[in-house]
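Extended Data, panel c. Modelled sequence:
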Amino acid sequence: MKALIIGATGATGRDLVNTLLQDQYYTEIAIFIRKSTGISHPKLNEILTDFENLEEVFSFIKGDIVFSCLGTTLKAAGSKTIQWHIDYEIPLKFAGIARRNHVPNIVLLSAYGASATSQVFYSRIKGELEDAITALGFYQYIVFKPGTLLRKDTDRSGERITVALLNFLNRLGLIRKFRPLSTSILAEKLAKAPKMLSAGKHVIALEKIFDF
């Protein structure tokens, strides 16, 4: 099974790369990145990519499955226009090229609350991306909708506060389904899903992820 990954240098993406490299089910891993990660492994192929010109790597977007983990925050992006471009336009174009190259399967890392009708900008981006990829007609389409993620050495102060609050409430036995999920565990579940699920579309919602 040859896997293609975009978003391989993000927190979840990095853990996913490491997970797939250790999984015998995945025989080749192609990651599309702006600059080298410095990782050396016989299964790993780094494709240096200008994400503004994906057609330049068209011939490399071939394999058995796409893992789409690309995303950013509004703060990091600097504007809603740029965030929309990174979180919606680039992943959709990559997925479209993959389908043109007959890649049959895709796993999309979305988010809790994602909906094309959401009043929350971030949730609407993710929801519209989910719907647009549905229209591409992948043989197997798996959408993960996690909540708060535990990222190693995060520098996001808001995220640290949210995680601390949720952990406190969880210890009191409250809102258990919203407990934080580490990116390493999420990566394991992303890798596992294509092996466990049938053809068609599957949505792994927040309340299902921990038991998946």
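Residues 157-170 have pLDDT under 50 and may be disordered. This feature is highlighted in the accompanying rendering.
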